[in-house]
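When time allows, look over one protein, given below as sequence and tokens. The question is which stretches look regular and which look disordered:
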Amino acid sequence: MKATGIVRRIDDLGRVVIPKEIRRTMRIREGEPLEIFVDRDGEVILKKYSPIGQLGEFAQEYVDSLHEVTGYIACVLDRDVVVAVAGAPEKKFLDKPISQAAEKVLDEKDTLVMDEPGAHAFCEGCKGDDEDCKFSSQVLAPIITSKGDTLGAVVLSSQETNSEMGDLEIKLANTAAGFLAKQMEE
């Protein structure tokens, strides 16, 4: 654990303010849920709550199936990191922060199709000219609950030259996103 040197007092209602610098660094937005942990040493730990992260194993099985059926790299993102990946090296993508393009999809709640050779849309995990991180086309579909909350996204990516994401791939990604959203509501 890393000390910040910042000290805050608890008010009479039991609240404590998380400094703006830490919220910005940790990408904690107003109204975002935090999970509270207490360890044996009496430390209180706040962690961003990820409903999609709770699906962990299920999300992994789902992307494994998507990859088997389509042959594309399939991923599930929460609002901050890649939580499941199939068809690509896990250590390149799993638990890596999502990209600004992916954040835009989540904020705008609209499916994004990218047909730009060499583009890398869904995470910030790769640096340089890494071939594992270059895609010819991608589709990112937001996972939106019936209440309108965006929890993450489903991504299909291709590294095949001249590959394009058509209506079928867009429908597959949107169907997967809709299905995962329903799982979160149950």
